């Protein structure tokens, strides 16, 4: 009996929209407040968003070269196996399961539920004796329902899930652009806000503040590499994957700069910073409230619901392919490497991903999850850029349908930046860093177990 395989059903435009939908989540609406609190300068905030976007774009260009060469299900899992080793590739996959993509799903679902709570107040249920597990129980229950629902939708088929993301992200982009235009013509803002600064930190404190703000901005761009995980389901991947990565990231950079400029146009940086100390306040919602009262706040809350719903769906859709690829190589539960006979999806991989996402959801909060996943992600982002350099030297004559522009400068810049971010995070946030590293390396015994059960590669 022939085992069912993944089918190439995703064309160029849906691939671009999937990149956009996997990036635009909660960060663009929420992170302006902590960034304002840290930097106290409108222009430094915009510079952080621009630099984070450009760094992410460089990462996307580096990944595009690898994606065009090796368009298999699992993205970096496939690239790392060829460039480094099966062991390093496994650690990447295990890290995604234990902290990176699963934490992304949990964090997005949590923000979706918080936004739902702002529209429809939920009963305040908490069990103080259980620590973080017993806090915000009603919010976590809604987030749990979202993860289960979207995992079921993705189990039913990639075409259905991709269409869902496509319709949502088109609506989201149109609403965001409408919000920008409406704000500019509302008469409620002032360009003077861009010339007014709070108490801007100096010296080493400024460096620390810029780093903290950059982490917030990078959370906003997280997910730009997800389309590579669908390498076996994208039509003409050698051409469409690089185009999707480039165009999708550019679209998001432009949208983020527009939206954050609007926030700063309406509210002075001190007011945005004050929102960071409020309870259950979201900067975008407060800006909308200034423009059009409670109606505007409700509309923005609905927009955040749409974006987090769409981004959670896209992340579930794409990242489950990593665990499918691991299982297919005999390095994860065998059932996760099976394709559903009717729906042609890695349904068991989606199920395991959902289960661990729920564990992370109930064990922490939004900020803990985002700090954890950004640190872990940049370890492997840097490995991708360094892998471009290694593969060019190792296989200079290999067929490359796409070559990263600015080689070798751009890969070196990106790999160096990733290394700096990881080192600084370890120094400044040793607890979160230790947890992230522990979760990644906790896969070593698992790897040893599975490698005893399979023959080594020749």
From TrEMBL:
<dbReference type="Pfam" id="PF13520">
    <property type="entry name" value="AA_permease_2"/>
</dbReference>
<feature type="transmembrane region" description="Helical">
    <location>
        <begin position="241"/>
        <end position="259"/>
    </location>
</feature>
<keyword id="KW-0812">Transmembrane</keyword>
<feature type="transmembrane region" description="Helical">
    <location>
        <begin position="133"/>
        <end position="152"/>
    </location>
</feature>
<dbReference type="GO" id="GO:0015179">
    <property type="term" value="F:L-amino acid transmembrane transporter activity"/>
</dbReference>
<feature type="transmembrane region" description="Helical">
    <location>
        <begin position="295"/>
        <end position="318"/>
    </location>
</feature>
<dbReference type="InterPro" id="IPR002293">
    <property type="entry name" value="AA/rel_permease1"/>
</dbReference>
<feature type="transmembrane region" description="Helical">
    <location>
        <begin position="372"/>
        <end position="392"/>
    </location>
</feature>
<protein>
    <submittedName>
        <fullName>Amino acid transporter</fullName>
    </submittedName>
</protein>
<feature type="transmembrane region" description="Helical">
    <location>
        <begin position="41"/>
        <end position="66"/>
    </location>
</feature>
<feature type="transmembrane region" description="Helical">
    <location>
        <begin position="433"/>
        <end position="450"/>
    </location>
</feature>
<keyword id="KW-1133">Transmembrane helix</keyword>
<keyword id="KW-0472">Membrane</keyword>
<feature type="transmembrane region" description="Helical">
    <location>
        <begin position="404"/>
        <end position="427"/>
    </location>
</feature>
<feature type="transmembrane region" description="Helical">
    <location>
        <begin position="164"/>
        <end position="184"/>
    </location>
</feature>
<dbReference type="GO" id="GO:0016020">
    <property type="term" value="C:membrane"/>
</dbReference>
<dbReference type="InterPro" id="IPR050598">
    <property type="entry name" value="AminoAcid_Transporter"/>
</dbReference>
<feature type="transmembrane region" description="Helical">
    <location>
        <begin position="87"/>
        <end position="113"/>
    </location>
</feature>
<feature type="transmembrane region" description="Helical">
    <location>
        <begin position="12"/>
        <end position="29"/>
    </location>
</feature>
